[in-house]
Amino acid sequence: MPLEGPLDTVIKTLAEFRLTNDQLLEVKKRMRTEIQNGLGKKTHDNATVKMWPTYVRSTPDGSEKGDFLALDLGGTNFRVLLVKIRSGKRRTVEMHNKIYAIPMEVMQGTGEELFDHIVQCISDFLDYMGMKNTRLPLGFTFSFPCRQTSLDAGILVTWTKGFKATDCEGEDVVGLLREGIKRREEFDLDVVAVVNDTVGTMMTCAYEEATCEVGLIAGTGSNACYMEEMRNIETVEGDVGRMCVNMEWGAFGDNGCLDDIRTEYDRAVDDLSLNPGKQRYEKMCSGMYLGEIVRNILIDLTKRGFLFRGQISETLKTRGIFETKFLSQIESDRLALLQVRSILQQLGLDSTCDDSIIVKEVCGTVSHRAAQLCGAGMAAVVDKIRENRGLDQMDITVGVDGTLYKLHPHFSGIMHQTVKELAPKCNVTFFLSEDGSGKGAALITAVGCRMREQEES
Ligand code: ADP
Ligand code: MG
User: Fold this and answer.
1) Is Nucleotide-binding tagged as a keyword (predicted)?
2) Is 193 a domain residue?
3) In this structure, is residue 61 part of a structural domain?
4) Is residue 261 situated within a structural domain?
5) 79 is known as an active-site residue
6) What is the CATH number of the domain that holds 89?
7) Protein residue with least CA distance to atom 14, ligand 1
8) How much is the average pLDDT of 105-130?
9) By alpha-carbon position, which residue is closest to atom 23 of ligand 1?
């Protein structure tokens, strides 16, 4: 028998990350159970996948029009946008936006500081657009788990993705925003809707493609939403029609139901995160964490002498150093191994040719699993919709946004393939839906304004 080479050992280490078809089917099944728990009146309180109602009752019908302001908070960048929607024969959506930084000390300071900062950015934007004297309707894309009680009220359940500002959890974020605007006494706005980015993404796609009834984000975080039957949403009164539910599926697994497939590296990433034990599925699937999983594997392999000549450099010890964009670069099919080494070099990691082969293998394995897990979750969603409608076969479109989905060389393909295999009765089309947080928020705000006018007349 040939002597076991380093690559064989590495392959053994990575075997845990390779999920079988049965395991993926099991993940799909468990997601379905958690969906049911989130929707059920009696099970909701203890459910991990919360299935929050969004009060978005229909996708756009094309008659939406007007000027809207949108805020996008909860991604890498905080943005303020002006969206001009024209209806009629020539439907157009014109967008202007500015990106603003949210300094770490504001992200993790007090809620008042955070909202004062947000209002300060809006002020700057309105000056820039010359629109300070109009009371514009605003859609607030706030991509954190919120307990909504109406279109314009959302209580922050818990921060995720690195945010930690105090005195916000348990508060209505629309109220916090309105108070911030009042404190400044400089301009007025009509806050109409609080919007999750998944819902914005679905709405943006649905504006172009009527069969879109699902939204998916694969970016910093991972989440999905879809149009559920009112009769199945036991946490909201009424049985007629549909409502979009923000699944908050990132928390899938927080009750331990994915522990059999989580590895020691997943646990290490979780333990050192800002929210240990929370968002376990998201931590296996999304951009914020994939690089960290890779880094933890690399450290372990180095400790065991299979990488970097057994030397753990200060760089490798640095949290966050291995960003997910490096996975995309390293896994690019066009890249020669020498270029992989040069990427590692840029990161301050001296590698041999063998090292670069191993690193590429590690990256590929971690992102492959991420895409499969995301696909298994999506398979559960589309099959649920199909069953809701009593169909043997169903065509459906999913609007997707997120840099991981857009820029990773293999993530989208593997995810699509997984959905196809795990939900063969659904013919799913994925539609890249860019800027849902801006355009989608404006569309939801437009629909909200229209509904309000109908109620008043
Ligand atoms: P957000 O989800 O924050 O609204 P994005 O969809 O742009 O915004 O996602 C940003 C995340 O995407 C980053 O946090 C990072 O993890 C990941 N990312 C950035 N660049 C790349 C890339 N080239 N390939 C894959 N993932 C990337
Ligand atoms: Mg985003």
Assistant:
1) yes
2) yes
3) yes
4) no
5) yes
6) 3.30.420.40
7) 220
8) 95
9) 325
Please tell me the predicted confidence (pLDDT) of residue 4.
64
Phi, psi dihedral angles at 94 (to 5 degrees)? -110, 135
Catalytic entry in 30, 72, 143, 383:
143
| Alpha carbon 76 to chain centroid, angstroms | 11
Task: Kindly state the tokens that stand for 11.
Answer: 């392959």
Displacement of CA 264 from its chain's centroid (Å)? 24
Q: What distance in Å separates the CA atoms of residue 450 and residue 446, rounded to the nearest whole number? A: 6
Q: Is 197 a catalytic residue?
A: yes
Task: Answer yes or no: are the C-beta atoms of 365 and 359 closer than 8 Å.
Answer: no
Give the model confidence (pLDDT) of 291-306 as tens digits: 999 999 999 999 999 9
Residue 202 lies in a domain: yes
Cα Rg of the chain, angstroms: 23
Q: Given CA atoms 258, 261, 264, 269 in this order, what sign does their dihedral have?
A: negative
For residues 92 and 95, what is the distance between their CA atoms, to the nearest angstrom?
Answer: 10
Q: Give the residue numbers spanning the domain of 182.
A: 53-206+435-448
Tens of pLDDT, residue by residue over 172-195, are 999 999 999 999 999 999 999 999
- Catalytic annotation on 313? no
Query: Could you give the C-alpha distances from 430 to 202, 228, 329, 411, in angstroms and in order?
Result: 11, 19, 23, 13
Domain count of the chain?
A: 1
- Residue 215's SS3 state is strand
What residues does ligand 1 touch, defined as CB less than 6 Å away? 75-76, 219-221, 287-288, 324-325, 328, 402-404, 407-408
What pLDDT sits at residue 2?
A: 52
Q: Which residue has the higher pLDDT, 279 or 77?
A: 279
Q: Given the DSSP bridges, would you call strands 394-401 and 212-218 parallel, antiparallel or unpaired?
A: parallel
